[in-house]
Amino acid sequence: MARITDEKREKIIADYKAGASKNSLALKYEVSIGAVFKICNGVERDLAPLVKAQVAINTELADRSEKEVKAFHSAVDEATKHLIYFQNSALRNQKLANAALESAERLCDIEAHARITAKNKETVLGRMPETIIQNTNAQQTKIQITRREIGASDE
Q1: Where are the alpha helices (DSSP H) in the chain?
Q2: Nearest Cα to Cα of residue 94 among 64, 78, 115
Q3: pLDDT of 65
Q4: Inside any domain, residue 155
Q5: What is the pTM of this model?
Q6: Could you tell me if 74 and 116 lie in one domain?
Q7: Beta carbons within 8 Å of 123's beta carbon, 6+ residues apart
Q8: Could you tell me if residue 74 is inside a domain?
Q9: Which domain of life does the UniProt lineage start with (predicted)?
Q10: Which of 52, 73, 109, 144 supports an S-S bond with 104, CB 3.0-4.6 Å?
């Protein structure tokens, strides 16, 4: 079995995160299965769903023309570039807003920070379902209070 260098260790972890089995990693990198178990202990396989999604996309694109596939990849690259740009801008804005909050003395400064934070959260995380106002057609229960005077009767 070969010596495990730092580079090989990083490759094993990356492949494991992408969904490779421990047995296949031991064979691929010519290390013992025990070494792979030690290296991958506690590592989450968080890239496996992304691999499955990409395989599904590639399968869907297999029947398309070359021009359509290029147009698809171009559109995805452009959208990704813009999304990353806006996310990075939002993070920079948030750092500046947090620094300004430290020296805030008026209530309007704090309110401005809250608005900036909300906008940046939406930019980075997307519009969250709990922040969208839901309109329902549910009937409202009306409560009617009737006052009746209880008076002394003249008998």
Answers
A1: 6-17, 22-28, 33-40, 48-61, 66-102, 107-125
A2: 115
A3: 93
A4: no
A5: 0.50
A6: yes
A7: 86, 87, 89, 90
A8: yes
A9: Bacteria
A10: 109
